[in-house]
Amino acid sequence: MTTKIRPYLFYDVALALCSRCLRKVEAKVVFQDGCVYMDKRCPEHGKERVLLADDIEYYKKCREVFLKPPEQPLHNQTPVRYGCPYDCGLCPDHEQHSCLALIEVTDQCNLRCPICYADSGPDRPGFRSLEQIEGMMDALVRSEGEPDVVQLSGGEPTIHPDFFAILDAARARPIKHLMVNTNGLRIAEDREFARRLGTYRQGFEIYLQFDSFKREALMELRGADLRRIRAKALEHLNEFDVSTTLVVTLKKGLNDDEVGEIVRFALEQPCVRGVTFQPVQAAGRLEAFDPATDRLTLTEVRRAIYEQSGVFRAEDVIPVPCHPDCLAMAYALKIGGQAIPLTGMIDPQVLIDGARNTIVFEQEPELRGKLFQAFSTNHSPESGAASLRELLCCLPSVQVPDSFGYANVFRILIVQFMDAYSMDVRSVKKSCIHIVHPDGRLIPFDTYNLFYREGREQAWEDARPADPWAGRKKVGLPILAAGAAQ
Ligand code: SF4
Ligand code: SF4
Ligand SMILES: [Zn+2]
């Protein structure tokens, strides 16, 4: 026996990407000093360590407890050919349908944010035509039947000259819930525009950029001091009672100390139904960026929510079973001017495992089913409230008020998209937030920005493995139908 011992616990192998050449490489998932790391090795670019989470128990829960049978789209748009993530999509190997689909209506924007993944700005060319946008909606409807949530995005969708015609086109299709992803400039500056948004009511929501109360943070993220704009936009949205979710882009050391303040502020806004937190990484622009230490992970944002908000507890913020590695959710009920988190409604004697002092509702089959249904990406405020009501009704000793509706529900969502550092083939197959490509493919948000955004596909052809089917043709082996090879 030797005395040589690794400094970590080895948990699993993973298929990852080299962040430099985007080739698929093998990796290990390891636990060390309370954190979860992915250790990769590229034949050309060497070793790389990436921080995945700073909470091992939570990470294991995502991998081992929050599992549900994958829900499939009606159709796939691409065959399995090169292997994941080079076949998007959705190819038959994908494990989750489009809970939420984004349709980008333009690359143009009235801001030029330094962190913009779409590289949008005032000088980007034109707008997608209404006809092309309708074609994208139809591609989604073919795949989903009745899409749960569609988010119009950009660029800045509200500056599209056919903006209201686009809303009406979405309304004319069997789309259950429509969101507009906006920086709020037009809503703030044009009261009449906000009034018209208010006429859309049911199944409609504004996804409003809202990152910080601090000037410096806004300057760094958005290149502009948007404090007055944000306040004015919210004033108009409250005036016309337009359902709104605040969307907060979080950067480590910049505004991650404002999480609690933003949650409390959001709870006071009558039109606001929730907050979405999206960590971004400084990679690319920061010279000395070290993915082993400088990443802001989902588990850190989760901790910020329960440490800073004064409303939510750790057990309120749980993995979303659609894509547990990348999404976490919490609910609070706004009743009588008070915000009560979900666990605050439940009699601790009933649901707490005394030994470990944790909520164990995921272990009761009926509760588990209802819980997984409520904690899903495909909800609107209305359907989220309905699912939550069902969940609460099957909890002993919870009195659900008769008037309980979506105005009483407040939802926190953490969305951590994968990048070239954190990409894990196992995980990306569960991605349920997809972008509709103008050619009708449905592509996970995470892989779209790395590989499939217009003009990008040519650039990475070298990273893609040779077409294995082409090889078979050459030596005359039988060609199996896509999907039959496993
Ligand atoms: S991410 Fe999904 S759609 Fe894309 S290649 Fe992998 S399995 Fe297919
Ligand atoms: S507002 Fe959004 S689309 Fe416009 S530049 Fe900023 S991040 Fe990009
Ligand atoms: Zn490499």
Could you give the topology of this structure?
Layout: E1 9-17, E2 24-32, E3 35-42, E4 46-53, H1 56-64, E5 100-104, H2 130-144, E6 149-153, H3 163-171, E7 177-182, H4 185-189, H5 191-197, E8 204-209, H6 215-222, H7 227-239, E9 244-251, H8 259-268, E10 272-280, H9 298-308, E11 318-319, E12 327-335, E13 338-341, H10 348-351, E14 352-353, E15 358-359, H11 365-374, H12 381-393, E16 409-415, H13 425-428, E17 433-436, E18 442-444, H14 445-452, H15 468-475
Parallel strand pairs: 5-6, 5-17, 6-7, 7-8, 8-9, 9-10, 10-16
Antiparallel strand pairs: 1-2, 2-3, 3-4, 11-12, 12-13, 12-16, 14-15, 17-18
What does this molecule look like?
Helix 2 (130-144) runs parallel beside helix 3 (163-171), helix 8 (259-268) crosses helix 9 (298-308) and helix 11 runs antiparallel to helix 12 (381-393). It contains 15 helices and 18 strands. The strands form three sheets. Strands 5, 6, 7, 8, 9, 10, 11, 12, 13, 16, 17 and 18 form a twelve-stranded mixed β-sheet that branches. A four-stranded antiparallel β-sheet has the order 1-2-3-4. A hairpin with a 2-residue loop joins strand 2 and strand 3 (35-42). The protein has two domains: 9-57; 100-342 and 409-457, Aldolase class I (TIM Barrel, Alpha-Beta Barrel). Helix content is 28%, strand content 22%. It has helices spanning 56-64, 130-144, 163-171, 185-189, 191-197, 215-222, 227-239, 259-268, 298-308, 348-351, 365-374, 381-393, 425-428, 445-452, 468-475, and strands at residues 9-17, 24-32, 35-42, 46-53, 100-104, 149-153, 177-182, 204-209, 244-251, 272-280, 318-319, 327-335, 338-341, 352-353, 358-359, 409-415, 433-436, 442-444. The radius of gyration is 23 Å and the shape is globular. It binds iron/sulfur cluster (2 copies) and zinc ion. One iron/sulfur cluster is lined by residues 109, 111-113, 116, 118, 120-121, 154-156, 183.
